[in-house]
Write a structure and sequence with these properties.
Growth Hormone, Chain: A; MFS transporter; disordered C terminus; globular; transport; single chain; cell membrane; EmrB-like; MFS_dom
Length: 486
Amino acid sequence: MSDNTSARRDSRWFALVVLCAGMLMIILDGTIVNVALPAIQDDLGFSQSGLAWVVNAYLIPFGGLLLLAGRTGDLLGRRRMFLSGLVVFTVASLLCGLAENQALLIAARFVQGVGGAMAAAVILGMIVTMFPEKGEQARAIGVFSFVAAAGGSIGLLAGGLLTEAISWHWIFFVNVPIGLVAFLLAVRVVPAERGIGLRAGADVLGALLVTAGLMIGVYTIVKAADHGWASAHTLLFGAGSLLLLAAFGLRQARIANPLLPPRILANRTVAGANLIQVLLVGGMISMFFLGALYLERVLGYDPLEIGLAFLPVAVGIGALSLGASARLNARFGERTVLVGALLLVLVGLALFTRAPVDGNYLSDVFPSVTLMGIGGGLAFPAMTTLAMSGATVEDSGLTSGLVNTTQQVGGALGLAVLATLSTARTNTLLTGGAAPAEAMASGFRLAFWVGAGMVATAVVLALTVLRRPAGTVAGVGEPVPAAVGV
C-alpha cells in the first residue's frame, strides 16, 4: 500500500472524528437544555406550558426538515449541506445565549433546529460513502452511535455544571467554539462530493406543509390549557393542523418525487416501528422534561443535582446500545427484545408516578431512571433495526430519515400533550386551595401516568403489528440478517 493511499485512509478517520464532533454538538443540545429549564423559566418568566416551547421550537423544525435536508444534500452535495448546517446552528446558538426575552430565545431555538436538521441529516450518508468496505463501515457507524448516545450523558452533566457555575446562557455559548472548530476542520478533511443536481427535484412544498402542520398542532395542544379543549381557538387551530397534514399526505401520493413516498409506510413493520417510536419517545419525554421540574420545584434539587439524578438513563442507553443489545437481538430477535425493553420502560414510568412531595432519590427516583436507561438502551437499537428492515437500496436513505423524523416529532408532540395536562391539573388543584408543592406533584403524576399509557400502547403494537423477522423460530433464534443501507 502506498504512502498516499495510507494517508487517505487515515484522513478518513480524522474526518469521522470531525463529523462526530458536529453530531455531538447537536445531540448534546437536546439534553443540555432540559437541566437548565427551571433556571430559564425563572429568568425569563415562562409559564410551565410556555416553557415547553423552549424545547419544541427546536424539535419541530428539526424533525420536520430532516427528510428535506437529506434530500437536498443528495442534490447539492452532502458536505456543503453539513457545513451550511454547522454555520446556521452555531450562529443560532450564539443568539440563544444572548437572549434576554422569551421571543428571541424561542426564535433562535427554531433557527437552531433548522441548522441541526441540515447537518444531522447527511452525517450518516457521508460516513457510509467514506467507508464503503463492510468491516470499516461497521466500526465507523459504531463510533458514530457511541458518540450519539454519549451526547445525552454529557449534556445532562454539562447542563448542570454550566447552569450552576455560570448561568443558563452558557449552555448555548458552549456550542460556538465547538461549531467553529468543527467547521474549519471539516473544510480541510471531509471529502467534497458532487450532488446529483437540482433536476432530480426536492419537495419543498411538502416539507413546508408537514412542518407547518406539526407546528400548528403542537401550538394547539400547548394553548389548550389556556383556552380549553373544546374552545373555538383549539378546534380551529386543530382543524388547520389536520388539513395541512392531510394536504401533505395527498401531495406525497400524487407527485413524482415525494418527500415521503407512500410505499415506505405501506410496509407493516416499518410503519409499526415508527409509530412505536413516536409513543416511546413521547412517553419518555415526560420523565426528562417534567421529571426535571419535579426534582427542582418539589424536591428542591439544583441544576447539577438534576443532571446527576438522570445520569443512569443516559449511561444505560449509551452502554447497552453498543454492546448487549446487538447480542440479544441476534439471539432472540429484535421484536422480542423490543417488547421486553418497552416493558422495562413502562415499569420505570409506572414507578415514577408515585412522585411524592417528600420523595427520596434512592427509593423514588433511582429505580425509575435505572429501568428506563436499561429499557431505552435495548429498545432503540431493536426499534431502529425493525424500522429499517423493509428498506430497499433505493429507499434506505428515506427510511433512515423517517426514523429520525418520528423520533423528533414524537418528543415534540408528547411533550406538548404531557406539559399541558400537567399544567391543567396543577392549576385546578391550586384553584381548589391545595398546597403548591402537592398541586405540582399531582400534575406531574398525571403526566407520568399518561406517558406510561403511551408506552403501554407501544407494547400492544409491538405484539400485534410487528412481524416476526424471517428466520426466527417462536421468537427465539438467529434472525436472517437484512442487507440495509443507510
